[in-house]
């Protein structure tokens, strides 16, 4: 008898995807395999500076691995892992959503970034490093969608510039060396906007005496005959002083002019003094004093003290500071520790004592060595005398703004000692820093024109 054949008809329902038939066993059966689909929903436009949240509906994603998002032009619009689109500038991009489990499944949409309806302003500078004696143009790029009346108010925050004009463009003339911030307050209709730009003004170094070698430094600085350095001096190279012992007590050098390291390093020297009849060492430092007219800046110092350099107010830079120390990186090794509990040397990294109106600004200080814990004032001690009744002296008029150090807060500067009152102005002092785990944003006052600022790295000076 002939068996009758059995005909099996398969019906397939396709829901937005592709279907394939896979043979199974001896080829007589089939299994339906349906690819996934993606549907994107949400507002497909936003303004410059605005955002829009997109979402994806996925079918046949049994793995639950989700999707990825991408933008065809991130200069126009970016999109994060959640589907949030941020408008950067006017234009059109393609947004693509892709299934993680099956990258062959994706969906594209066109996204438009429209002009902002809000006004804005941004200052454009030709460069952030300029020379004293020159002039330059600053321009305000204003977005004024409603064409409203504009009122400009430009100002120098640090008062080391003169400004000519008060419109969308101004002429700026640097008056002296230093960090400057030019601020613009713009009134557009009833809206007030503020924009600023940070600049650095450097001197014209053609008028400076250049120091390029150890021999230059020994002759021009340490060998100055009248002990008064009233000129302008700059480093043009890193200088290794080869372990030279500098007896500042004997030299009694006074810096009344300007020393600009231009970001270079003066390293490997030791500060020493002469022991007196009672076995004590006198105050000693590279300079006996930096007077009110004196300025020491943009220099990387790497030096050390030992037992011969532990006098009251000793320092690897200056004993008596009456002028300005700014934008210096100081690596100070204190090699001497007497080993007695409660003992400490009265020395410091920057200055032994501060005189009225002294300024310390934007310095990075790394202290190491056996006597690190005993260095009681890596910035400086207050100067001044004790009142007749034995009470604390009057507050001292110093400016300390921008100190970043690995020392503890108790060892940063002498804020109140029996021979001087508290420092009245001390801002942006950050202590207890672990250099290799600190974000660059910590160093908020340091000018990136002068400093290399990188996460998890101690700041370093740039050559200018």
Automatic annotation (TrEMBL):
Identify the InterPro entries for this entry: Big_2 (IPR003343), Invasin/intimin_cell_adhesion (IPR008964)
Is Zinc set as a keyword in this record? no
Q: Which Pfam family is one of those matched by this entry?
A: Big_2
**Source species, domain of life:** Bacteria
Signal peptide span per the entry?
1-22
Key words, A-Z: Signal
Instruction: Give all residue intervals belonging to the BIG2 domain.
Output: 32-108, 117-198
Q: Does the keyword Signal apply?
A: yes
Give the protein name, as stated in the record: Ig-like domain-containing protein
Q: Which organism is it from?
A: Candidatus Onthovivens merdipullorum
